[in-house]
Task: structure prediction
Amino acid sequence: MTTVAQTGITTPMLIYKILRDDEWRALRATGEIAGAPIDIADGFVHFSTAEQTAETAAKHFSGVEDLFLLALDGDALEALKWEVSRGGEKFPHLYAPLRLQDVKWAQPFPIVDGVHQFPT
Result:
């Protein structure tokens, strides 16, 4: 899933995880978590691609404030599987704990006029 720019340099396939503030604090404090309650119930950590994240935010986090958007390199996660989910699309699912060391970046994910604002 790695992409190659016109320069021939490979760039990581970023996948995204939305966490509530308390989940993000727990990840930073312990270094790894089993995920959000839905992840624990389903037995894997749910992620989205860049194209899927807005719909995920609208569907599962509508009106929820104090969120963080995390980006991870999907190519670097050995326990990542792409599985058919919502709308027949393949989504990245991690069958391992979410580890802080795998997070490439994390940014606040605020709501403006009812819509989550993605970092630039």
Summary: Residues 63 and 114 are 7 Å apart (CA to CA).
